[in-house]
Each structure stands twice: as structure tokens, then as C-alpha cells.
Amino acid sequence: MSDAPLLLTDLYQLTMLQAYYDRGMTAPAVFEFFVRKLPQPRNFLLAAGLEQVLDFLGRARFTDAELDWLAASGRLHPRCIEALAGWRFTGDVDAMAEGTPFFPDEPILRITAPLPEAQLVETRVINLLQFQSMVAAKAARCALAAQGRLLVDFGLRRAHGAEAGLLSARASYLAGFGGSATVLAGMRWGIPLYGTMAHSYVQAHDSELDAFEHFARSHPGGTTLLIDTYDTEAAARHLLGLVQRLATEGIPVGAVRLDSGDLGEHARRVRAILDGGGLTQVRIFASGNLDEYEIARLMAEGAPIDGFGVGTRMNTSADKPYLDCAYKLQEYAGRPRRKRSEGKATWPGRKQVFRRYGADGVMLGDTLTVLGDEPLGEPLLQPVMRGGRRLAPSPALAEVRAHALRAIARLPPALRGLEPAAAYPVTVTDALHDLCRVADSAAG
């Protein structure tokens, strides 16, 4: 993923690049990534994707085959092709730590580099930050609704492509999920893996009970059995004797999974059957078209469900499948630059976000200001790359997850709810307003 080719971009990045080279426009430029507004009913977003951005910036190169194709296409002149042959990212990056809650107009990443470099990486930077931040926010809402129950990412098969499926496993774990069914996510990032069986496994056997026994014996360290292929409650009753017999042989059955129908009602009936048969230790895991709202409903009903598998609606962020985000030029050749388009005006210059907390540790509000100003609070953007080189290795994903969970716990209680809450206060300083007037005056 971080090895995505530089040609995985929009054509206008290359056409602008040639025009910049033609005019010698290679002075330092500052671009910042931010979200214009929160997608309702989100009360916060969660910064994610920085690791992949830094990997991309550190490794991005044009291959000989790509340069040959560009030359043959006739879209760029030979001088530009020659310049691209030695293209490297040599700039600086400042960013919010992954797992940090953020709000509209707050930059979560700033790139300072020669203009052609900072421009060319725009498409991929947006692609990586937008997707993971979007999924992380959705996953965080699911985790808040689940109130500590296990959540597992089940979304790979309906993700919008392999990269999306893999990155959604990462983003959801970062935001509070307990694991994923995506095996490569376990190998790559150490995400705990969970998996049971498909209905096809049960159907392939002549007897449902034989399917359960064969699977349990194949996985004697403990397993979860899918019991809703035919008749959910009948399967639960059939299990009683089998689970007790397997237990005498040291083969535990840890849980049963429900994947269809009224999950709350089935869970209540199955729980009663299991408890009546002395299997109070067997947990109930549910999946099937779940999101934060359905999880919250099941929790409010007191459904005896110990964990949830959440897939399609989370890793596509089905209710709000994109962020109104941008990566915009804020300074070039030492002068502030500002877009003034209707409905899309930007704050110019290099900026910093300061966060204030109350005595109880809960977030009070943020201040958006020009870099160098120092209002009260904790500065959120920190240097992570200088001269095209990382300043330190990326933290382990488990560390990022711990940071995210601490940060989410410090959100005002209303923002942790599923319904829209009053906007979190973000104050724009006089210094930034003054810089707007300077940029507007210079632009004419």
C-alpha cells in the first residue's frame, strides 16, 4: 500500500508539475490537510493514516517503465520527464498523532516542501488520510455503543477493494475494536485475529452436530460455532450434550455465533438454553448488518450478547461514506496564500492547534492559530519528518490504539454519544484573522 506508484494520481498533478518546472516555481510551499465540516451525526473525527502517508513519502519514486510510458504518451515534454527521473520527497511533515480527535478546519497534517514535491503527493495523501480517518470515526462510535463488549472487524469481503479492507482493519483496531478477521492485518500489524466458520461448512456435512464436533476437534484450543444455519434454538439444544462431552476431553467450546434474524431475541433464547444446560461459560457472539445504532439498540434491550462482528457498514462508513476534506496551499515562497472560493475559503499560513483540558482531564476547547503563536494548551501538530526522512520509527499500532482510547475518553460526554451534540469549541485567534487580511490584500 505504501508502495503505490506515483502514477496513482490525478493527471492534473502532472500537468501542474510541468508548468511549475517551466516557470522555475520550486520555492518552498506549505500544504495542510483538514476537514471542512463534520459529517452529521459525527461529533468528532479521529486522525488516522499517518503511518501510510510517511511510508509513501519516504519511498515514492518513478520507475523506468512509468517514465517510458509518460514519454510515449506525449503529455509531458522531455525536460519534465528528465526531472521526474530523479524525483524524491525532500520535505518536512508535521502532524497530529494518529488516534487524536479533531474538528473542522484543524489541520491534522502539514507538508512543507518545494512546490512540485508538495503538489505531486496531494492525491495519495488525501486518499490515505481521508479513508482511515473516516473509518476510525465510524469504528469509534461502534466501540462507544458496545460499552466494552468485544468488537471484531468482519468487513474485508465487502470492502471497496483489497487496500480498503486491510486499512479498515487497521483503522478500526486503532479506534477501539478488539480484532479483525483479516489475516494479513494480523501479520502486518499484530492485530488479534478472530474467526469461526461459514454456513457452507455446516452445509457440507450431512449432520449439523457432526459439523460442530469435527470443527471443535480440529481446533481443540477453543472455538466458536455458528448455530443459525438451520434452526438457531434447535442447534443450541443439540449442542448441550456435545459441549459437555467435549469438555471432559479437554476440548472447550468458547462461544456460539448468531448471524441472522432478530439477534436480540435469538440471543435471549439461546442464553436461556445454554444456561439451563449448565453452559454458563459459553459466550454469545453476534454478527450481520451491524453498526453503532444496531449495537446501541441491542445494548439498550439488554440482549445477552458478549461480542459483535461488524463489517460492511463500518468499513464503508455506510451512512457517511466520505469526508469533506482538502489538502490546500497555505503558503508559497514565504507569502501566505488563501483560497476564497464561496463555501470553500481557507485559513492561510502555517497553523497550529492547541488543546485545553479541565481539571478532570476532559477536553475544554481548541485554539487554531498561526505557527509561532503560543496560546494556552497542548500543541497537537508535532514534527515527524524532516528533509524527507522520518524523525523516529512509527509507534506500534497497539500504542497508537492506547493513545486513541485515552483521547476518546477525554472527549466531553455529549460528544461520545451517537446523536448530534453542540459543536466542540474551536477558537480562531486574532493573529490568524490578521493573516487572512494580509493574504487577501496580497492577492488583490
UniProtKB/TrEMBL annotation:
GO terms for molecular function: glycosyltransferase activity; nicotinate phosphoribosyltransferase activity. It comes from the Bacteria. Residues 378-435 form the Nicotinate phosphoribosyltransferase C-terminal domain. The keyword Phosphoprotein applies. Keywords: Glycosyltransferase, Ligase, Phosphoprotein, Pyridine nucleotide biosynthesis, Transferase. It catalyses: 5-phospho-alpha-D-ribose 1-diphosphate + nicotinate + ATP + H2O = nicotinate beta-D-ribonucleotide + ADP + phosphate + diphosphate. The keyword Ligase applies. One of its GO terms (biological process) is NAD+ biosynthetic process via the salvage pathway. InterPro entries: Aldolase_TIM, N/Namide_PRibTrfase, NAPRTase_C, NAPRTase_N, Nic_PRibTrfase-Fam, Nic_PRibTrfase_pncB, Nicotinate_pribotase-like_C. Transiently phosphorylated on a His residue during the reaction cycle. Phosphorylation strongly increases the affinity for substrates and increases the rate of nicotinate D-ribonucleotide production. Dephosphorylation regenerates the low-affinity form of the enzyme, leading to product release. It is an enzyme of class 6 (ligase). It holds the Pfam family NAPRTase_N. Residues 7-129 form the Nicotinate phosphoribosyltransferase N-terminal domain. One of its GO terms (cellular component) is cytosol. Pathway: Cofactor biosynthesis; NAD(+) biosynthesis; nicotinate D-ribonucleotide from nicotinate: step 1/1. Its EC number is 6.3.4.21. Residues 151-331 form the Nicotinate/nicotinamide phosphoribosyltransferase domain. Catalyzes the first step in the biosynthesis of NAD from nicotinic acid, the ATP-dependent synthesis of beta-nicotinate D-ribonucleotide from nicotinate and 5-phospho-D-ribose 1-phosphate. Belongs to the NAPRTase family. PANTHER family: NICOTINATE PHOSPHORIBOSYLTRANSFERASE (PTHR11098). This is Nicotinate phosphoribosyltransferase. The lineage of its organism: Bacteria, Pseudomonadati, Pseudomonadota, Gammaproteobacteria, Candidatus Competibacteraceae.
